[in-house]
Fold each of these.
Amino acid sequence: MTEILNGKILAEQLQEQMRREVEDLREINIHPGLAVILVGEDAASQVYVRNKERAAQKIGIHSLVLRLPATISQAELLTEIERLNADKNFHGILVQLPLPKHINEEVILDAIDPKKDVDGFHPMNLGNLFVGKKTMVPCTPAGIMEMLKSANIELAGKNAVIIGRSNIVGKPMAHLLLAENATVTITHSKTKNLAEVASQADILVVTIGRAAFVTKDFIKEGAVVVDVGINRREDGKLIGDVDYQAVAPLCSYITPVPGGVGPMTITMLMKQTIEAAKRMEQ
Ligand code: NAP
């Protein structure tokens, strides 16, 4: 029997726990704050930012969305980040990506105070993850680890294969799984015999951005399959990188799209904001 890893339900449970924690923190005068910077009018980014704002409100995290015009210069944006780095009301700062072409994303992400980098994208936090220090971790792989943990899925000694090597999902995912003693393989667009490599996986994480790319040829019977991809079909429906109908019957666990990894990503952002506030204020 395949079990569905329902990220929506888990996210709701965790957000409720966080709401209570934030209430308790208020008693000792700690008020977690999150600042989100949105540059320009990108439609998808506006939806993501609205969802983050909503989750923060629900949990009781004080949030600010700084909406800046697409014409803002890199220097002006850096000034805004410096201002937020120094602002004691905000423990987390997030810059919604992508940024307009004339702005260098790397320069902007590097300018965020690593202590406030709740997205976990700063090279210092990624470096800490690499050497195995407790640190802020990119939210999507952090959310996946929570899902695996909540289902008591054994990781030690298991073969984990990750398809996709992005800095925000694939690579940090590999380090988190390695830290739990999985044997990790990272694959990408140049990997030879990808389906064969994937079919060795006890845990398969797919983060490529190609609709229904992973078919049943990629799956070992009983594997745990985590689908990070979000792709919009022509009819408007959202689907993952995994051909869910064909693959699900072969798995022990699988994440759906939507309602799998997505809701956990935002939840981890809130969790890291609360943790940053506790570290800074206690
Ligand atoms: P990305 O930066 O878009 O990079 C895609 C990765 O997939 C690259 O490493 C690429 O390999 C690899 N790839 C592309 N085509 C491939 C192929 N045919 N075979 C094997 N590997 C292939 O990745 P991302 O940022 O991780 O995003 C991936 C997907 O996840 C997107 O759909 C995105 O919207 C979604 N996403 C969802 C969440 C969430 O919260 N649910 C969060 C983040 C991203 P190369 O490196 O060789 O080019």
Note: The longest strand covers residues 33-39.
Amino acid sequence: MPENLIVPRHIGIIMDGNGRWAKNRGLPRTAGHIQGAKTFKKCVGYCRDMGVECVTFYAFSTENWKRPKAEVDAIMKLFSQYLDDAMKMTEEDAKFVFLGDPEPLSDELKKKIRIVTDASAENKGIVCCIAINYGGRDDIVHAVRSIMNDNISADEVDEALISERLYTKNLPEVDLIIRPSGEQRLSNFLIWQAAYAEYVFMDVLWPDFGKSDLEEAVAEYSRRNRRFGGI
Ligand code: FPP
């Protein structure tokens, strides 16, 4: 690893470009997601080796249901297979956290999510968060509903309270958001949490994203001067 890197505590990654990766090879889009899932698994290891405390991957957004059913099913299948792997990994140090509304997911997925979450809850290693049926706006709506359901008065509502009611409660602040594939948008990912994050946009397509790309993004982050609204 290059010297003088400031390692972010929490990195958010938008895994974009799977479809284009497949198209470039004349393959179906699902082939891109299969490769993207492999990259995701390797990336957790790169983050762990680098000393990152927490990494959040955007796997499926609240808007992704608009995709063809076959593609949605393929992504859910990959996610289900990963949960099977994760169940075998709960003896290891990683803690798994799932962000988003699980309600529309299948009963089988909901059950696997609960098992993996509970079995890894006390683990002290890297926190691997998977945002699935996640939307930043939905995250805020969900937080507001939970505050209102508790009959909390308006003058008690502050930023800290809202943060505590988001799916990311108890996670460190997001320091760095990486989006590969050349797009320069947040696409409803961690919109509250990323208020002071640094953004690094890269041209590499997600399935091709490697250790050197992560190091490049962290090097860029290290060069930025974070002032948090100060001078
Ligand atoms: C965006 O690329 C990618 C997705 C919407 C799905 C990401 C899913 C995975 C990487 C696999 C499943 C996840 C886990 C956690 C095992 P795109 O399809 O929008 O690419 P494009 O912009 O090139 O079309």
Note: Strands lie at 10-14, 54-61, 95-99, 127-134, 176-179, 198-201.
